[in-house]
User: Which sequence fits this backbone?
């Protein structure tokens, strides 16, 4: 088997098939990046998986999963002003969490250089929105590199790191979901390790580092001057690219959208020229002006919002250019990922003579398959019990994590969702003037440490009336089982797990109830008690992540899978197990019978208590004779 | 070099990612250039997982334009229908492992399960060749992906890839007992 860690540390040039996220790690190594931080979030966790593949004692840089994106940014910044080249990575909405710190970075003289790697998510594949983070770049004067594929993730990181280090500034490397997860065979350069320099080089004389009063303006001036220097880089860099043949029509675009356009246009003759810019901000004005001047019609093909379009139209106006410039033509153009199909449609709308309309057959009927909790998931057991206690009028507030999936049928637990850690404070607001509808907020354990603490403290401080259910599964499950502050381990080593209950007690919360979620009746009783408390109460609903647990069990020698079954003699086809408990391991047959899918059942038996006639049999080693006809 | 597009679809947990990477690496071992992309993230939680491979492309988008997949590979019957619907081109091939992981709507009684006959009829209508795989002797559901790979190889569904290429790709990605049992399944 090829070992990723060995591959990443190879000294001579080599070629290998890698994902965009993995290519970044090689770029970090080659550039001498010394500190990397993150908080897990799709589409970026595989960057950390690649880092984890390198044995800790051979890892050329320090890495940590911090408690949240803001903390990660601050740790990386601290290292960078001490002279170390640093990088921080997180998902799109992570920048909202990091924003308070992030927007100040361009004011600072970051002597080591800092690369901010964003995993943006056009199409909202795994995020609660598809926000266009280029807005943050504009408001903070931070340059944005836009790689299109794994090869560019590698080369653009190296260019961004060089710029960050020479200009002493933050630089954004903006990846999108299908750049992070794209795979290609790349030719990597040699790695010549930099001489290791641990000297703490922080010096206030490099500052000012205190953006207060009179300091702010020289600091802002410097940020604008740097941006101007980067604009010259953006105009002259060989990372820009032009393809196509037509001098009449042209397209200006960036990133993966450019590859979509090239794929669609490959089928056409006299292809419009495509100007693919390496940086979306600052705009390479000279390059764009020249392109406009040499084409009669230009289409600004811009995924998500119209930032480049506005600037390009404004510069054409200022330059007195008569080029016809088209950008967003309807609302749909502001939405979704610019896949080849989407780009085909957009091009057809503008130039129907260049790109013919797509012909799509009438769709087939296929039942939807929303993401759901895994077989044996402790959250399912919890939601089943909680739903039985709550009245229809009660209000349930979800948070981010696997437990968010409880909003789906058949549980429908969680009627509002915002962002990491927001549930307790939203629930506090829902409790105001409210004497009739009980408020229950949910929260995962990683999220608790990430952004929930201020909301929890506020609930106490301002004496709010609600119940928080902490869904403790011991890991950051949704993003791939990363450890968190309560796990007893960080990315690098054993650590003292911060006990949830003692944190809550330390805050002064008196009404704390703890229960394993597989004990559904007990959980129901505890929740009743918590709801009866006037004020703020907490139920710690605990069960280890069963996906993680089962994977670990299966690696053990002599492991034997046990599974439950349905006793067809006693089953009355109430469908409590398959339709209301809703474990995906149950199969509903057309004639009403229920059986167990041998591909899925993990034998956790959390379902047995849900059957009114106890027709679900004890887990046992399965023999094929038990399969239903 | 002409492009050959492969669209893989299944349910989170079925091993679409490994199957896709084996085909990608086998294509590379056969001397073909290729790009690919996976869907990760939320979809892992029992949702739909998609992987796309484009052979004959060294650099370019890994996203297959609509209804241009020469080969659709699925590990579950409902997802086979979904892949047929969104990706298969007329004249292309759909291969799937004939097992069912019922979607939520089927389990709650709001939707009907798709039958093998439904799928066959839809393939005929879309002019897509259907290859159904099912192995009653297969005891470990986690090997269904390798069982499909075996038929892909036996039927020559991906052009230009030899048995040695597939085996080398498996060597790249697996080790120990997992490699041994999957090699055995593939070669038997």
Assistant:
């Amino acid at each position: 088997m090829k070992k990723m860690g060995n591959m990443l540390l190879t000294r001579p040039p080599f070629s290998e098939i890698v994902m965009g996220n993995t290519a970044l790690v090689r770029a970090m190594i080659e550039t001498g990046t010394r500190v990397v931080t993150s908080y897990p979030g799709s589409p970026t966790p595989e960057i950390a998986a690649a880092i984890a593949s390198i044995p800790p004692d051979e890892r050329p840089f320090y890495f940590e999963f911090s408690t949240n994106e803001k903390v990660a940014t601050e740790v990386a910044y601290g290292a960078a002003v001490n002279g170390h080249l640093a990088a921080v990575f997180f998902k799109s909405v992570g920048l909202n969490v990091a924003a308070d710190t992030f927007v100040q970075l361009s004011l600072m003289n970051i002597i080591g250089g800092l690369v901010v790697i964003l995993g943006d998510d056009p199409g909202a594949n795994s995020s609660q929105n598809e926000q266009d983070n280029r807005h943050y770049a504009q408001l903070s004067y931070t340059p944005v590199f836009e790689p299109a594929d794994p090869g560019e993730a590698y080369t653009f990181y190296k260019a961004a790191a060089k710029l960050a280090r020479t200009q002493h500034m933050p630089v954004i490397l903006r990846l999108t979901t299908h750049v992070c997860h794209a795979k290609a065979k790349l030719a990597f350069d040699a790695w010549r390790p930099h001489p290791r320099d641990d000297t703490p080089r922080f010096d206030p004389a490099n500052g000012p580092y205190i953006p207060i009063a009179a300091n702010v303006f020289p600091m802002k001036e410097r940020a604008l001057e740097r941006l101007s220097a980067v604009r010259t880089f953006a105009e002259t860099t060989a990372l820009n690219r032009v393809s196509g043949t037509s001098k009449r029509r042209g397209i200006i675009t960036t990133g993966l959208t450019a590859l979509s356009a090239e794929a669609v246009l490959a089928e056409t003759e006299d292809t419009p020229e495509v100007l693919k810019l390496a940086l979306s901000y600052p705009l390479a004005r000279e390059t764009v002006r020249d392109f406009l001047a040499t084409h009669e019609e230009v289409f600004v093909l811009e995924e998500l919002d119209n930032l480049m379009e506005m600037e390009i139209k404004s510069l054409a106006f200022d330059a007195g250019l008569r080029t016809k410039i088209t950008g967003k033509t309807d609302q749909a153009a502001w939405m979704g990922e610019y896949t080849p199909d989407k780009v085909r449609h957009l091009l057809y709308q503008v130039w129907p003579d260049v790109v013919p309309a797509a012909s799509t057959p009438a769709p087939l009927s296929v039942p939807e398959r929303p993401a759901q909790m895994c077989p044996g998931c402790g959250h399912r057991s919890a939601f089943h019990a909680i739903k039985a206690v709550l009245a229809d009028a009660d209000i349930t507030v979800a948070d981010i994590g696997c437990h968010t999936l409880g909003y789906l049928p058949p549980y429908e637990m969680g009627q509002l969702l915002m962002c990491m850690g927001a549930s307790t404070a939203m629930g506090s607001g829902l409790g105001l003037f409210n004497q009739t509808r009980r408020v229950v907020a949910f929260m995962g354990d990683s999220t608790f440490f990430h952004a929930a603490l201020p909301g929890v403290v506020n609930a106490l401080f301002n004496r709010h009336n609600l119940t928080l259910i902490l869904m403790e599964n011991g890991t950051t499950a949704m993003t791939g089982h990363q450890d968190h502050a309560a796990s007893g381990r960080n990315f690098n080593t054993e650590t003292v797990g911060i006990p949830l209950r003692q944190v809550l007690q330390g805050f002064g919360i008196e009404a704390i109830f703890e229960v394993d979620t597989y004990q559904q009746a007990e959980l129901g009783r505890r929740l009743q008690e918590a709801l009866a408390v006037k004020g703020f109460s907490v139920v710690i609903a605990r069960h280890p992540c069963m996906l993680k647990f089962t994977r670990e069990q299966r690696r053990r020698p002599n492991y034997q899978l046990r599974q439950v079954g349905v006793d067809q003699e006693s089953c009355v086809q109430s469908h409590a197990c398959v339709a209301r408990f809703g474990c995906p391991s149950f199969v509903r047959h057309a004639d009403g019978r229920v059986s167990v899918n041998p591909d899925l059942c993990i034998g956790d038996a959390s379902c047995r208590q849900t059957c009114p006639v106890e027709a679900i049999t004890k887990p046992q080693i399965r023999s094929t004779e038990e399969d239903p006809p | 070099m002409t492009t050959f597009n492969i669209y893989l679809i299944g349910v989170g947990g079925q091993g679409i990612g490994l199957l896709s990477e084996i085909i990608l690496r086998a294509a590379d071992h056969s001397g073909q250039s290729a790009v690919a992309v996976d869907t990760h993230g939320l979809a892992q939680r029992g949702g739909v997982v998609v992987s796309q491979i484009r052979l004959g492309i060294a650099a370019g988008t890994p996203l297959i334009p609509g209804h241009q997949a020469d080969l659709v590979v699925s590990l579950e019957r409902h997802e086979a229908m979904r892949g047929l619907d969104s990706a298969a081109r007329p004249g292309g091939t759909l291969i799937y492992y004939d097992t069912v992981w019922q979607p939520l709507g089927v389990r709650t009684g709001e939707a009907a399960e798709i039958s093998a006959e439904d799928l066959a009829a839809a393939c005929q209508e879309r002019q897509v060749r259907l290859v159904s795989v099912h192995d009653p002797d297969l005891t470990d559901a986690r090997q269904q992906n390798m069982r499909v790979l075996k038929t892909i190889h036996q039927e020559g569904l991906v052009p230009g890839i030899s048995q040695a290429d597939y085996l080398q790709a498996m060597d790249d990605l697996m080790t120990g007992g997992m490699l041994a049992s999957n090699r055995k399944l593939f070669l038997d």
Q: What stands out?
A: Chain A has four domains: 4-236, 241-350, 378-549, 560-626. Confidence is low (pLDDT under 50) at residues 624-629 of chain A.
